[in-house]
C-alpha cells in the first residue's frame, strides 16, 4: 500500500482469558451502540476488530468521501444512528480533513476514530497529530494515551455526539494502544442518552407574546428541525398562527414545501416568495438555525426583530443582533410555544391569512421561469434538467442532493421537498464533490429510497472514482452530471486567464467512466431524450445498479433571485 506508514499486522482476534485489546474493546462498544457499519479507508485496526463483532466495513476509495458518506448517513437518520468513520494515521487523517471540515460546517454529528502514531512519536515533526490539527473543526478532540482510559473516553465521545450542538467528535487512537491488552468488558459500557433541553417558562412567554404582537412574522427553519425531527411541531405552530415558513439551505425539507404556508429556501438563489415576505416581515423567528452569515445564504435585513432558538450558545448574537435568544431543542421549544399560546388563549381577533398571497407570488415566479425549465434549446438548459428530474421521481419516496455552485443554485429554488429528510441541502462550506458521498450515505441509511445526486463535471472530477464505491458497496444511486466543458461561473474570477489561456475549460466524457466502473451510463444531448434516459436509469437503480446520466448543457448564468 503506497501510503501505509507501518506493516500490516495479523488481524485475527485471539482474545486472552480476561483481557481484550484496545481495538477489540472499541469494536465491542460500537456493537453495544448498535453501529451497523464502520466507514473509512484502511489501514485501521478497527476494521478487523469490528468485523469480528459482525460490524461490516464500508471502504470508500478516498478518505474524504468516506466522511461524506458518514455525513449523508447521519443526516438522513437524524442522528438516531451512530455514524462512525476510521482512517489510518498520517496520510489517512490528512486526507479526511476536508470531509470533517464539511461536516463541522454542516453541523453533523459523527464519531471520527483515526488511528494515531505510536505513543511517543506522535508529536515529532512532521508527523500529523489528529488531536492537534482537527481541534478547530470538531467540538471535542482528544487522544487516548492509556488503554485503561478507553471506557471513559468512548463514553465521553459518544455522549458528545448525542448531546449539544451537533458536530463531529474525534478520538485519536495510537496503534500501539489499539494492540495493547487490558481487563475490560464492552458489555459494561453504558450507552449515553440524548438530552433534550427546553426553554424556560418566561422565555416561552416572551417568544409567544412577540409572535402574537407581530404584524407580519416569518419563521426561518434551520437544520435543527430535521435533526430534532420537529417538522410536525413546526407545522402545528405555523398553522396555529398562520405564519409563513422559509428554510435555510441545510434545513430544506424541514417544512413541507407543498404546504400553503411554505415560502421555500432562503439560499443565494431563491424563489420570489422569500424576498416578498422577508421584506414585509417585522419579526423573524429563527429556529434550529445557527444564523450564520454566508455568501450562499440570504441575509436577514437589519430592520427585522430576530428571535433565535438554537442548541448552541455560541450561535446567539454571533452574526446578528437578536432581540431574544433561547437555548433549546427545536421540537421541545415548538411544543412549548404551541401549548402556551393555546393554554393562554392568546389568539385574539383575526390573524393574517397569507396562503393566498403566497400562492399568487409563487405562481408569478414559476410563470417567469417556465420558459427556461421547459426549454428545448441545445445544448440543453440546466433548468430543463431540473424540471425533468422533478417529473421523473416521486418526491415522497426520494432523497435528492446536489453539488456546490450552479447545480445547487439552479436546483434548490424549484425542487419541492415535501417530506422531512428528502433533501440534503448544504452550502456554508462548498467543497466540490461532496454530494456524491452524501447520496451514498443517504442510500445506506434508507435503502428503499430513490436517491438522486445532481453535480457538475468539476465536482465529478474531484470524486468521480468513488462512483465505484456505490457499485461495490451495493449503494445504487442515480448521479446526474451536467457537462458544459467549462468550470461554471469561474471565468468571472479569472477573466484574463480565461481569455488568454482558456483557464476555465475542461474536457471529458463521463458516462463511459460509469460503465467502465461497472455502473449504468448514458449521455444525453437532446432535450426530448432526457426524461426517457432518466427513467431508464431509475429502472437500473431500482434493479440495484448505480447509474450515471451525463447531460450536455450550456453554461447558464441566470439564477433565481440573484441580480
3D structure, described in words:
With 563 residues, the protein is α/β, with parallel strands linked by helices. It is 37% helix and 16% strand. It is built from 21 helices and 21 strands. Strands 2, 3, 4, 5, 6, 7 and 8 form a seven-stranded parallel sheet that branches. A six-stranded parallel sheet has the order 12-11-10-13-14-15, sandwiched between helices. It starts with 19 loop residues before the first strand and ends in an 11-residue tail after the last strand.
Fold topology:
Blueprint: E1 20-21, H1 22-32, E2 38-41, H2 45-52, E3 57-59, H3 63-76, E4 84-87, H4 91-106, E5 110-112, E6 115-116, H5 130-133, E7 140-143, H6 150-162, E8 168-174, H7 175-179, E9 181-182, H8 201-213, E10 218-221, H9 223-227, H10 231-241, E11 245-247, E12 262-265, H11 272-280, E13 283-287, E14 305-310, E15 324-327, H12 330-343, H13 355-373, H14 382-392, E16 398-402, H15 406-411, E17 423-424, H16 434-445, E18 450-456, H17 457-463, H18 467-472, E19 478-483, H19 495-501, H20 511-516, E20 520-524, H21 530-542, E21 547-552
Parallel strand pairs: 2-3, 2-4, 4-5, 5-8, 6-8, 7-8, 10-11, 10-13, 11-12, 13-14, 14-15, 16-17, 16-18, 18-19, 19-21, 20-21
Antiparallel strand pairs: 1-9
